[in-house]
Amino acid sequence: VQLVESGGGLVQPGGSLRLSCAASGFTFSSSAMSWARQAPGKGLEWVSGIKSDGSTYYADSMKGRFTMSRDNAKNTVYLQMNSLKPEDTAVYYCAIPKRNNWYDYDYWGQGTQVTVSS
Q: I need a surface site. Which of 18, 98, 109, 117 has the fewest CB within 10 A?
């Protein structure tokens, strides 16, 4: 299993970024996927999840600002992040969640850094 995130960077408050996660080594179209993040000095925080049928779920603080999607033809999941805030600064990880549990993961990628700062 390989998960490779990309798309992070430095953005000003109020700006947008789109993260991508290229997946391989498993049956992507049948798998739920998650995004999680870890801010400096804090624990891992679940951000969003998407089931194989495309239904999406978000942590309360991301609702209305973040949109997760998937492209099964490309074995890729995306996280569109709008109206970014300094508190969104973190390393963002793509992960395969354990069955029926968005908060625990079988596999995750190396992460991509998102920094929101003026």
A: 117
